[in-house]
Amino acid sequence: MARWRAWCLVGLAALTLIAGCGAAAHPAPAGPSFERDDFRFVAPTGWEVRSSTSTASGDGGIVVYLANQALRDDCVMSASGLDCHMPIDTLRPGGMLVTWAFQHCVADGCDLPAAQVISIGNRQGVRVPATEACRGIGTTEGSVYYVTVTPQRVDALFVCARNPSDGTRAAFLGFLDAIQWRIP
Question: How many structural domains comprise the chain?
């Protein structure tokens, strides 16, 4: 009888573990939302979202920024024309900045970089290291998440971070999981 109870407890623990594996590993975002005709997202709780003030071309451009610290407009009018910079000067410790850009493409110009394929909002994507995108704002790490939106469009999420906590990483990954694409 004692053996049977022990096996039952082991089986119950295994079932609990298996059931827990199916649960979301990242927190569901509950911060500000952003909507366009082609996608919608909710930012992590406590994050700020700001549309880009740059002028996008028909081929691509920056759509939106999100960060866990205050953002400013990325472009301002100056005497010489539109002057554009990063929407923050320096990431604070634990900070994370995401720059969402889109690009229309053709043929092999739409191929994702060679990397392990991951799901980003139920679309195929990859994550690769970022080098140039995060310069000058005090980052300790950077990544680019490329997402195939349509056969003729690839979006890039440039992620710059400065010693982010595990909670900040989890909040960002929850955001990626919850992106809702509106393009079939």
Answer: 1
pLDDT in tens, the chain (184 residues): 444 333 333 333 333 333 344 445 677 778 889 999 899 999 999 999 999 988 777 789 999 999 999 999 998 888 887 788 899 999 999 999 999 999 999 988 899 999 999 999 989 999 999 878 898 999 999 999 999 999 999 999 999 999 999 999 999 999 999 999 988 7
Q: Are 67 and 95 in contact (CB under 8 A)?
A: yes
User: Which CATH number do you get for residue 135?
Assistant: 3.40.1000
- Pairing status of strand 81-84 against strand 75-78: antiparallel
The parent domain of residue 142 ranges over: 29-181
- Evaluate whether residue 5 is within a structural domain: no
